[in-house]
Structure formats: structure tokens, C-alpha cells
Amino acid sequence: xxxxxxxxxxxxxxxxxxxxxxxxxxxxxxxxxxxxxxxxxxxxxxxxxxxxxxxxxxxxxxxxxxxxxxxxxxxxxxxxxxxxxxxxxxxxxxxxxxxxxxxxxxxxxxxxxxx
Amino acid sequence: xxxxxxxxxxxxxxxxxxxxxxxxxxxxxxxxxxxxxxxxxxxxxxxxxxxxxxxxxxxxxxxxxxxxxxxxxxxxxxxxxxxxxxxxxxxxxxxxxxxxxxxxxxxxxxxx
Lengths: 115, 112
Known about the structure:
The complex is a heterodimer of chains A (115) and B (112). Chain A has 115 residues and is mainly β. Chain A is 0% helix and 49% strand. Chain A is built from no helices and 11 strands. The termini of chain A are far apart. With 112 residues, chain B is mainly β. The N and C termini of chain B lie far apart (38 Å). In chain B, 40% of the residues are buried. At the A-B interface, strand 4, strand 5 and strand 10 of A face strand 4, strand 5 and strand 9 of B.
């Protein structure tokens, strides 16, 4: 049981390039989330999904896209990377909504540097 | 607007003493609160939670207190151990809502 896995661990992108951050969970969780954490800041929600085929915007969705074709996978797509997207990205999953279950389970993060 | 605030970016505590981390919130609709712990180069991990129907929840060395009238919660760690050195995030949710709102975190350093 690997939990939530994220690839890559670290990536450098040039301005204007695109990339996909991968996230996979093996806990059969319905809910999946993408967060970004900027230095000295908390985690900001980018997008989330309540099940396969269903996604919704979080607090900071601009410049990102997501898809959820399976329960296990929730990739985050960056189009036309900008320096403002330099951050650490965390994927998380949970069995139920936060108020009915103890926790969201987080992946180890992807550190992205846009130059 | 920061709905969940952790006003102390850092805190240093002697090993064996009590660590108290504080969190304030502004949204009165929040009714479920969680604390997460984060080590460098790792994702956050769940530590302890509390529902608004309680004012205290204990789990071993960790206790969370909730003061709804003051919109304030605190995490007590006693006794503090070197392995407790980490960044602690407070998070809040509305009952039944899918989303968590996180604070900015407090870096706790335990001095041996």
C-alpha cells in the first residue's frame, strides 16, 4: 500500500513550457485534491475531485487544468508555465469529506521551479 | 482574506517542556478543525482533529483545545520531544464541505 505517490519529485521548467504533474493513490479514495504551497504560506487549493469524471476549481485554479478519468489518478496540467507557478505542489486524497473522516492523505510533493 | 491564521511563524521550546501552538479563524461556519505536521521534503501528515461539538480532544502527548466564542484553537504537546520539530498547520472545514482551509503554519523547534 503506497498511499499517494507523486512524480516527478523536482522539475525545472522554462517560461512558456508545459508539463503534467502525476498523482496516483491506491486507497480507493473518492476525493482527490491538488494544493500548492508557496514559501511562508499555507496550502492553497488548486483543484479537487469528488470522483472519477468530476472536477471543480479551488481557490487558485488559474493556469492549471485537471482531469480524473479513473479513481486512482488525478494529473495536474500546467500550460504556459510562469514564474508565479514556482511552488511545491501536493496531491492529497481522502475517503470522505473532511468533516466525516479524520484526514486527507498527502503525497510527498513536487517541487517546481519556473525560470 | 486569510480565514485561518497562525500568527507565530516559529516557536522554540526546550525538550521536555510544553509546546503550545495557536490558530485563529474568522469564518463562524467552520465546525471541524485539524492539525497537520510536516517534515521537510515530505507531505503533511494528520495529527489530531476536533469537532465543534467538543472543546478538547486528546491523543497521547497531543491535545487540541477549541474556544468557539473566541474562534481560537490551540495544540498542546507535552512533553515535547526532538522528533516534534516540524512545521504545524492548522486547517478548518465546514461540515459536509469537501474543502479544507489551511493556516500559514508554525515552525516548531525542540531544543535538546
